Amino acid sequence: MNTMTPPTSTPAPASPxxxxxxxxxxxxxxxxxxxxGWLVAFGLFLSPNDRVHKTGVRILYxxxxxxxxxxxxxxxxxxxxxxxxxxxxxxxxxxxxxGASAEVGVLFMGITLVSGSLWGRISWGTYWTWDARLxxxxxxxxTYIGYLAVRDLGGTHQQRARRSAxxxxxxxxxxxxxxxxxxxxxxxxxxxxxxEGKLSGLMLFSLxxxxxxxxxxxxWLVMHRQRVLALNDQVDDRGxxxxxxxxxxxx
Length: 251
Description:
- The protein is an all-alpha fold.
- It has helices at about 25-45, 60-85, 90-125, 130-150, 155-170, 175-180, 180-185, 200-250.
- Helix 2 packs antiparallel against helix 3 (about 90-125).
- The protein is globular, with a radius of gyration of 24 Å.
């Protein structure tokens, strides 16, 4: 009599004992989601319309926070790069923080350009014009894309970190140029809405909700991206060790 053996099932992979997330990052992620939901509620439903731009003012609750967070991200990249070049703190931790912050900053700057073009269509009747603020912002966006490209060039971790830090310290000088362009050249772009006191009540509150929720999201993204960069460095180092061991065996 033929006996049939039951099919063997492949055991499920064991879950990692040490996940990459922590209790703090999970709480921060939840807080970010709550903040974004809060922004959607106030920005789309509770905040009143503007007398001139009507419902178009709701773009402001995305445009302004994303611009400020891009400034913050590029500032952190510059500070971390300076700390790496300082001889007493020459740690790759600062280089990874600079790279992670720049990546998130490019994301927020892209959101700034897209939302700004939509705002321009409402205010000026066109998505783009070679306005001083728009031109300098686009130049800043391209500069940090170039910075990220420099980070992917070959060389050791220290060589990559050194040249990236130098470029970051040069690129961050463009941030005040973008911010003060509306005061130095008087372009079509309006001055800062908060500084001129054009918003009040729920409109101002909704704007600050956007800044807070985007800040939480920025910190959460930077923390996770920095860990990914650290893992990539470990993989590169391990691959180099394997290559050296194979070379020794050949010799």
